[in-house]
Structure formats: structure tokens, C-alpha cells
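Researcher: Please translate sequence to C-alpha cells.
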Amino acid sequence: MECMTIDSMDWDGAYRDGGFFDGPPPWNIGEPQPVIADLIRSGAFASDVLDAGCGHGEVSLALAAAGRTVLGVELSETAVAWARRSAAQRGLSRATFEQGDITAFSGHDGRFSSVVDCTLFHALPVDKREAYLRSVHRAAAAGADYYILVFAKGAYPAEMESKPNEVDAYELHAAVGRYFDVDFIRPAPILATVEALPGLPDLVLPFERDELGRLQFPGYLLRARKSESGIA
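Model: Translation complete:
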């Protein structure tokens, strides 16, 4: 894989056949992350839903299968094309997809009753977080629920040349709390199909694997709600 920082990542290359990975990127496990799937089953999301940084669209498709209307927004054209094909193959017309930069997302002011960010936040450059949160706040309806699943600090070794911009709970609360009322932040695993880390092939990560062999990285699940007093 070509060496680059997460902040300069070619996301289309990450999703393209013959790109950086042999097969799908490791964060695409072929279904929603378990903690997000649990939320969908519990009825936590109300239509319309914004799936921020939707990737291959597994969260959007699961939401549509559960009867929700959802818009997935993703930077990679390749990932959006994949998601649209999957929606058509599964007959899930409630799921639509838009290619674009979520940090400059517009045209849907006050539309979404729910927002889900499944492993996008840590993929953003730190200096893009403000623009991202402003875009999501603008798109969210009054009282909208907002869920973020993000890597916790320490999920990846410090010596990695390119790794996600992980957060601790304080950092996450401070960033999101400027725009939304934070209800809770709690530990939650993030599964990935990882055998070895780029540049560190002999490093054994101290995390358990699930029954399918997927590595369980430490993360946080945040739930927040749009506040009318938040920064617009």
C-alpha cells in the first residue's frame, strides 16, 4: 500500500478494485458495525436519516431495510457506485446516495431527524472537524439524534506512520458539544478485517477477535441531540 497520512488519504483508491487493499477495505465488514446494528434494531433512528461518510452503504441499506428513509453521503465515487448497485439489487429504494464532501454538505437544511457517523469522525483531518460538525448541525432537524462511532485513543500504535485521528472521551465531547447536547459517550468496539498493520507486519495488537475472526478495536459510541442554542 502506498504510504500516506490519513489526512491525505486517497479515499477512492481505498475503495477501488486493485487499489490499496486486496479486496474490500478492512473497515468494510459487509454489514453495519454491531453497535450500530443494535441501534437500528432498537428503533433508535427516525426518518429521514443522514449517513455521514457512508462508504459502501451497509448502514444506509440496513436502515432502509428497517423502513427508514436515508441519504448516504460519501467522498468516494467508487463507494457511492457500489452502494447504489447494492440498493438496486436489494430493492431498497428508501436508500439514496450522494457523492460529495461531508465537510461542505449543503442543500438539506433542517431535513434529518437522525444522523449517524459510523467511523467517519476519526478519518477526518482534525482541522476539518469544525466544518464537518457545522454541516451536520445545519442538516439536522430540531431535536435530531446524532450517533458517532469512533476509534478511541490507543486503538492504533503511536509508531504507525499513517493512522486514524483517534480521540479520547474528553476530546470527543469538547468537539461535538459545541454544536450538540451530548447525552453519553461509552466504550464500544469497532470490528475490522485486519491481519497485520501497514509497516508493522510483526506487531500483534492486544485486542480480541470475534467469532468471525474480526479484530475488535477499542472505540466510543457518542449520542447527542441538536440544540437550538448550538453554534450554527
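Researcher: Any highlights?
Model: The chain has a mean pLDDT of 88.
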